Amino acid sequence: MIPWDALAMFAFGAGVGAIGTMVGVGGGFLIVPVIALLEPSWQPRAITAYSLAVVCANACSGTFAYLRQGRVDRRSVAVFALAAIPGVLLGVLGANALDRGWFDPLFGVLLAAMAAWLAIAPERRPQNIGGSAVRELVDAHGTRYRWSFDMRLGLAGSAVVGVVSALFGIGGGPVQVPFLVTLLNYPEHVATATSHGVLAITSLVAMLVHAAQGDYRGDLALTLATAAGALAGAPLGARLSRHVPGKALIRILAGMLAFIAVRLIAPHGQHPRPSGE
């Protein structure tokens, strides 16, 4: 008989997979706060390891769906992922000693500012910024996309995304999608798909490092159940994203970033108090 908790985590993973793939962020923004509430005894290291395993499953499944749709900027995925990997390794090391009582509020303020920017002015994305990289692709439905960006900025931003991805266990998508859209001029639908491709690689690296540290020994069954749900839900999210206008995707992402920010900034009793209080 399948345990009820495993079924519940599979259903949770399916929902995370669908929503995370639809907006290109991997679902970690939902996993971290939910697991922090459900498992008050887990340390941040265990929470981030769990989240990144599910994010990896979600991102891999979503990437295959987006590749079939022809919306992934394949030329940039490998380059951005390679630039992010050193940051991923630093982020995992930081998560090992992370005091969320100090870092969460700061990160929450950053996400709140990013959410406000996306919600207020997604239409202000520049149309022609110039740059060293020019991209053009036609997706499986015949929609043509053309844009250009500064590759040096893309590499630098990817390194930062790598740190955030592993440090907070949210996968980096909530940072990377706005970065691709607002600073690198990516069309919204291409940004969500390309972010998933980068996320599949970087979250896999982070997951392997956590596995080498033994961070999955205590909760492997629940991790696998949630990851299986994310694999099942991701293709649905990719199909749904085709029917949502690009501006709407960005506004949905803004709302999700605001949700994470509130969860990180608001006191919730799970973080240890700083010494001296």
Summarize it.
By secondary structure, this protein is mainly alpha-helical. About 70% of the residues lie in helices and about 5% in strands.
Detailed description of the structure:
By secondary structure, the chain is mostly helical. The protein has one domain. It is built from ten helices and two strands. Strands 1-2 form a two-stranded antiparallel sheet. Helix 1 packs across helix 3, helix 3 packs across helix 6 and helix 7 packs antiparallel against helix 8. The N and C termini lie far apart (48 Å). The C terminus is likely disordered.
Strand-helix topology:
Layout (H helix, E strand, L loop, with lengths): L3 H20 L4 H11 L5 H26 L4 H23 L3 H21 L12 E6 L5 E6 L1 H18 L4 H10 L5 H25 L7 H22 L4 H20 L12
Antiparallel strand pairs: 1-2
Helix pairs in contact: 1-3, 1-9, 2-3, 3-6, 3-8, 3-9, 4-6, 4-8, 5-10, 6-7, 7-8
For this structure, the quaternary state is single chain
Radius of gyration equals 18 Å
Strand content: under 5%
How many H/I helical runs? Answer: 10
In sequence order, what are the helices and strands, one letter per element? HHHHHEEHHHHH
* Count of DSSP strands: 2
Overall pLDDT metric: 79
Shape type: globular
- Terminal-residue CA separation: 48 Å
Going by helix content, strand content and strand pairing, the class is: mainly alpha
Helix content: over 70%
Structurally, how many domains make up the residues? 1
- Main sheet characteristics: 2 strands, antiparallel
- Outline the low-pLDDT stretches: 269-277
Strand order of the largest sheet: 1-2
